[in-house]
Fold this protein.
Amino acid sequence: MSSVNDALDNARFTYEQHMRTCRQCHADAAPCAVAKHLLRIYNLARRDHLRTAGGHASGA
């Protein structure tokens, strides 16, 4: 299960880092296409994490 946790942590870190550093996201005050894609990856990783935990994991 550690690979699922690693994927979730990596996806969260990548999305959060992008949101902190992307000039387009800050200039437009809306997520850019890359941010939307990274958020989609994070949501999929979170869904996989919940599946492997049997749906009893705390909200990430």
